[in-house]
């Protein structure tokens, strides 16, 4: 039997009408499914429609067109029932900084109408889960960014949600704090919680996501597992070449036809090839002497930039 589908979107649309401006379509007819127990990711540049889609999934923004269902329920008419089964970790922490760590969980639990005894038991368990038991009596304000992020995740779990929605869960954290958060999210997946996340970190998506979609200009450009997308849109290896200042343009001409795809950048040339070492040998055969040469495996970032471009979007 296939895994249960918890979220299904068919032709999902969201258009904003602003005064004195033409209508803007943020989400232009996307289709996707999220299955129970998986980690599903939304990747895309700024303005791609990720956050708008997440707001519709979270039942805080009405669907503009198409169909969206969660747990078989309609967000337009059954939003409260759906939200009771969701946990949300927003991009910006919204903790009460003047309250104690433990009290943030207690107050949030009351929003769901949970009995105080249940909240106390869950709060202690969640503080241990996010490694904050020793800070339970401290105020939130002096906590580090990583601690606040873990507390926000614990708060989102107080109602024991079936789906946890995370918007940029590790933005602004140092590498050590990011890995601690990754570990907690991986443990949630092992416990059967379904996770939906947006992220700008390609390594985060590769580490956490079972499946993901790459969005661009309100549409889905690609969908699949990280490994599937790399195999589909990139080569096994990437050869990175740097040439002396002023020699790159001539070098690019001599590199034509090498590998499956050539991508000149301002500071280097990328050669996409299934055998990076063989491509490097061919560089020497063609009489080129790069300042540096690096053969590496293709990553999800290569796929992302290939699908969405390298131009900065404001």
TrEMBL record:
What does the UniProt entry say about where the protein is found? Answer: Cell membrane
Q: Which residues form the ABC transporter domain?
A: 7-242
Indicate yes or no for the key word ATP-binding. yes
Q: How does it sit in the membrane?
A: Peripheral membrane protein
Q: Which UniProt keywords apply?
A: Antibiotic resistance, ATP-binding, Cell membrane, Membrane, Nucleotide-binding, Translocase, Transport
Q: Which family does it belong to?
A: Belongs to the ABC transporter superfamily.
Q: What is this protein called?
A: ABC transporter ATP-binding protein
Q: Give the lineage.
A: Bacteria, Bacillati, Actinomycetota, Actinomycetes, Catenulisporales
């Amino acid at each position: 039997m296939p895994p249960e589908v918890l979220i299904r979107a068919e032709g999902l649309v969201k258009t904003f009408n602003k005064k004195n401006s033409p209508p803007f379509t943020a989400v232009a007819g996307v289709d996707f499914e999220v299955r129970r127990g998986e980690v599903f990711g939304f990747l895309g540049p700024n303005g791609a429609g990720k956050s708008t889609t997440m707001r519709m999934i979270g039942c805080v923004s009405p669907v503009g067109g198409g169909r969206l269902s969660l747990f078989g329920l309609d967000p337009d008419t059954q939003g409260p029932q759906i939200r009771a089964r969701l946990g949300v970790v927003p991009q910006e922490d919204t903790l009460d900084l003047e309250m104690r760590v433990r009290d943030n969980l207690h107050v949030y639990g009351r929003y769901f109408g949970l009995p105080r005894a249940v909240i106390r038991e869950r709060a202690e368990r969640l503080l241990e889960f996010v490694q904050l038991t020793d800070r339970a009596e401290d105020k939130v304000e002096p906590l580090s960014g990583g601690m606040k992020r873990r507390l926000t995740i614990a708060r989102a779990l107080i109602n024991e949600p079936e789906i946890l929605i995370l918007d940029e869960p590790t933005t602004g954290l140092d590498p050590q704090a990011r890995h601690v958060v990754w570990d907690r999210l991986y443990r949630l997946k092992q416990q059967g919680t379904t996770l939906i996340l947006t992220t700008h970190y390609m390594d985060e998506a590769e580490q956490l996501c079972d499946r993901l979609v790459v969005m661009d200009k309100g549409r889905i450009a690609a969908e699949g597992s990280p490994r599937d997308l790399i195999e589909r849109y990139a080569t096994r290896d990437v050869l990175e070449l740097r040439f002396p200042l002023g020699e790159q343009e001539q070098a690019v001409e001599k590199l034509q036809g090498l590998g499956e795809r050539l991508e000149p950048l301002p500071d280097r040339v990328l050669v996409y090839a299934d055998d990076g070492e063989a491509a490097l040998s061919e560089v020497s055969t063609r009489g080129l002497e790069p300042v540096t040469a690096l053969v590496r495996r293709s990553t999800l970032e290569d796929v992302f930039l290939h699908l969405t471009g390298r131009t900065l979007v404001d």
